[in-house]
Amino acid sequence: MRRYGKNPDEDDIRVRPNRKGNRPRTHIRPKHEDAAEGMVLTVDRGRLTCLVEDRIVMAMKARELGRKAAVVGDRVAVVGDLSGKKDTLARVVRIEKRSSVLRRTADDDDPYERVVVANADQLAIVTALADPEPRPRLIDRCLVAAYDAGLEPVLVLTKSDLAPADKLLEAYGALDFPYVVTSREELADGEAADRVRELLDGHVTAFVGHSGVGKTTLVNALVPKDRRRTTGHVNAVTGRGRHTTTSALALPLTDAEGWVIDTPGVRSFGLHHVDPSRVIHAFPDLEPGTAECPRACSHDEQDCALDAWVAEGHADQARLYSLRRLLATRERREGD
Fold first, then answer.
1. 3-state SS of the chain: helix, strand, coil percent to 5?
2. pLDDT tens digit string along 176-191?
């Protein structure tokens, strides 16, 4: 076996020929410093629809991204044909750092996280007051996910012409977040859309809700020029709606600044990914009271210091009840 020194003559080195005749692979990837910035509007079977400046560009994920997937709301770097013309295809070469990520799991025992949207700052929880009946436990779960992701919640109650909203609003009044009550007549004449639009102006808002609650109908009223298909059918036996939205879609608000992201209807919202200890951060009036709690306090036990904190007048009893209900939701199966 021939050995080489530290500085062998080039003539002494054997070079194995490349049988394929192409360039050898390298781990050095281009930085794509000239890539254009885009926003992912929707994802469909591996194809990403992106907004680049004022053009809609179809793109696919570059190989160097590996398993990292882009989702609706992502800010991405795009190269290639950015003309937006028919039958052209660009490449997404980089996913920029996300300001927020809304996640859910299929159920509380499922460790696989599904990213719903990225870079939103509000979560509009849409619930019908009847047809189908409200599901408070699903609302609670969405609230926990919103607080965990750092999103501000907004409650949108639809179909107030079928049932009053007082009882449901009373249950969530202590959480002190904005809400809008709408009827089908108000949606038809545009009055409801105007009230909702005021809450969404200047924000990127993700819409979530049970199937059949009128979520997509509301989105169509907010963005009339980009209407999505709706049916509004609710099964009379199960009380469940039919999925009319099959993929998330980001749309610019009409007559306002901001974006609305319509998501498919959900029948469950698993919270396996949520650490219950982070939910307290959504209650700044209660959080200082946890300083005297025993270690690893669940905030729903005999020695919890929050009871004394509330008794001393630092916070309202209804706020403590709301916190404990949300924490219990983390451990409760959907539908209980």
1. 25, 25, 50
2. 899 999 998 888 788 8
